[in-house]
């Protein structure tokens, strides 16, 4: 009886091997197998590289909502030595794939930004972002120049107080006090 069971299993294995051999000898089926294996390997490689790039560059994937306060880095060539290194903005619109349309105090930025290019702002208050103009479009370079204290006609003040009243030349011109203003006044509240 055991011999019949061994013969049956061996004949089943032989039939399976014969069917498998017949199928794998078909060039169309072989091509489909190779193609499926290549796609699977490519997908695994893509996932592995994505994880390694995230770990290497410490990419933080953040999700922002409309109305969140964020900042965009300004290139060193587009700003002066005493200017802000980032432009404070507000998220105006969330586009597909974590791409954001931003608005600054001068208008809507022309380019949309990916989540990796945008950083969250701290708990500071930015009064200029409460009601930004939504009808004008501006480039990041133009916005950086407009917020620059150096390009505002070299207005400096020599205040000895907090620079909150209109007696301050900078406050009156609606620009932040820069590095050329009162170097020893540490109580200034109008700095960038």
Structural class from helices and strands? alpha+beta
> Which residues form runs of ≥5 with pLDDT under 50?
none
The number of helical runs is 4
| Average residue pLDDT | 78
What's the quaternary structure here? single chain
Our Rg estimate from Cα atoms comes to 32 Å
Share in β-strands: 15-25%
How many angstroms separate the termini? 93 Å
SSE topology string: HHEEEEEEEHH
Helix content: 25-40%
Major sheet attributes:
7 strands, mixed
Shape: rod-shaped
Count of β-strands: 7
How many domains?
3
Task: Explain what you see.
The radius of gyration is 32 Å and the shape is rod-shaped. It has about 190 residues and is an alpha+beta fold. It has 3 domains: about 1-55; about 70-150, no CATH class; about 150-190, no CATH class. It is built from 4 helices and 7 strands. β2 and β3 (about 100-105) form a beta hairpin. The chain has helices at about 1-25, 25-55, 140-145, 170, and strands spanning about 70-75, 85-95, 100-105, 105-110, 115, 120, 135-140. The longest helix has about 30 residues, at about 25-55.
Layout of strands and helices, then pairs:
Layout: H1 2-24, H2 27-57, E1 69-73, E2 86-95, E3 99-104, E4 107-109, E5 113-114, E6 118-120, E7 137-138, H3 140-147, H4 169-172
Parallel strand pairs: 4-7
Antiparallel strand pairs: 1-2, 1-6, 2-3, 3-4, 3-5
